[in-house]
Amino acid sequence: MAGRREWMRRLGWLAALWLGGVSALAAVAYALRMLMHALGMR
Fold first, then answer.
1. Angstrom distance (rounded) from CA 24 to CA 28
2. What is the pLDDT along the chain (42 residues), one digit of tens a residue?
3. Record's InterPro entries (predicted)?
4. Greatest CA span in the chain, whole angstroms?
5. How far is CA 41 from the centre of its chain?
6. DSSP notation for 11-39
7. What is the chain's alpha carbon radius of gyration, rounded to the nearest angstrom?
8. Residue 42 has what DSSP assignment?
């Protein structure tokens, strides 16, 4: 079952990287929205 364990580990890394990318994009979008709101461009 070593192959299955390696596959699950790779899938876990893929999910972690995907979640990291999504949360980074959300943080950038939130920061841009706050910046535009602060500048009165809303």
1. 6
2. 678 999 999 999 999 999 999 999 999 999 999 999 999 986
3. DUF2474 (IPR018895)
4. 59
5. 27
6. HHHHHHHHHHHHHHHHHHHHHHHHHHHHT
7. 18
8. -
